[in-house]
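so my prof wants the structure for this chain in the C-alpha cells format not the other one, which i didnt know existed until like an hour ago. anyway here's the sequence
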Amino acid sequence: MRFVHERALCDSDDVGDGTRIWAFAHVMKGARVGKNCNVGEAVFVEGGVVVGDRVTLKNQAMVFTGVTIEDDVFVGPGVIFTNDRNPRSPRMALVGKRYEKEENWLVRTLVGRGASLGAGSVVLPGVTVGAYALAGAGSVITRDVPPHRVVAGNPARARGWVCACGAILPPELVCASCGTRHALRGDALTAAG
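here's what i got, hopefully its the right format
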C-alpha cells in the first residue's frame, strides 16, 4: 500500500505499492512511480516521467517530462533535470508553434539502474547516466556518463570508477568494500568476479 502525506499532492494513478510521498511533494497526473520508492518533501514529478522501483528522490528534486529513472537510483536533494535545449516561454508569440507538439522541443533523459546523483546536480537534456554511475554534489552533467563512472564538477568530468555497491574503486579496481574485481575494456568497466 502506498503512503501519501496529507500535505502532498498526488494526481497520478500509477504509483506502486510501498511508495511513500512526503509533505509538499507533487506527483502530476501521467507520471509513473514504481514500488517502494521514497519521494521526499517538496519533490516535483511532472506528467510523463517514469520512475522505477526502489528509487529515492530526496527533498526538492525536480523531475520534468521526458525523464526516465530506472530501478534503485538515488537522486539527491535539489537535483534538477531539464528537458529542452533551447527553452523559451511557450506563451511567447514567436515560439508558440514550437511548443504545440512535444517532439518539437522535448529531449529525453535516462538515468540507469543503481546510479546516484549528488545533491544539487543539474542534468541537461538528452544525456544518459549509465548504470551505477555516481555524480558528485553540484555536478552539471552535460554529456553521457558511462556505467560505473564517477563524475564531478561543472561541467562534470570523469574522476574515477565506482562499484555497484557504491564504493569508489582504487586503481587496481578491486572493491575494498565488497571484494568485487573489475576490469576495464576501453571506457567500460565490467565486474570480473
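also thought this was worth mentioning. The chain has one domain: 3-168.
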